[in-house]
Specification:
mainly alpha; three-stranded antiparallel beta sheet
Length: 182
């Protein structure tokens, strides 16, 4: 059973009307969830592609695993999407009341799309705009009370997508640049 098609307001900026990813984020949403572990499933990084991978010192982090579009995401999938570690997300949950993922029957955190957007907003406030945790809490609460939370999460998503696109373009330019051999 597949997840319902998200409305225009629920979609991430890199998704089209069907909920499928396009552009810079397409690779993050194409593979089946990691729970499927049959032997016939394609690997995330083919051996030939792994041999041609860029150097470790490149500016853009290389993601070798993709994530499928679905209703709920595990903490590890969210961490991969937003570029944070699990302990950071758990800490933010204690600091930001609006960031409160539900838990499944096993007690594991499960995140919905709205919570991922909030995480990206908090990340943007803390890392890009250099707010303190207390200042970011106040800003999030101010946005929530003023009814501008959706607008702010969209701006944070747009900034994240632009950063990813910029990093991919730099990698592409680096790959296409002629090597000088003297």
């Amino acid at each position: 059973m597949s997840a319902p098609t998200p409305s225009a307001e629920e979609r991430f900026p890199w998704e089209d009307e069907s909920g499928a990813a396009s552009g810079a984020q397409a690779s993050l949403w194409e593979q089946t969830p990691p729970e499927t572990s049959d032997a016939s499933a394609p690997e995330a990084v083919p051996e030939a592609a792994a041999a041609e991978a860029p150097d470790e010192d490149s500016a853009a982090p290389q993601r070798d695993r993709t994530i499928a579009h679905k209703e709920y995401y595990s903490i590890s999938e969210v961490c991969e999407l937003v570029g944070l570690k699990p302990h950071v997300l758990r800490y933010w949950e204690t600091q930001f009341q609006v960031l409160n993922p539900s838990k499944n029957r096993s007690g594991n955190r499960v995140y919905q799309r709205k919570e991922i957007k909030l995480i990206l907003l908090v990340k943007h406030l803390l890392y890009e705009e250099k707010y303190t945790v207390e200042g970011a809490k106040q800003k999030v609460e101010q946005l929530r009370r003023g009814g501008r939370m959706r607008e702010a999460t969209t701006r944070a998503l747009d900034a994240e997508v632009l950063t990813l696109l910029r990093d991919e373009m730099r990698q592409l330019l680096k790959t296409l640049a002629p090597t000088s051999s003297a």
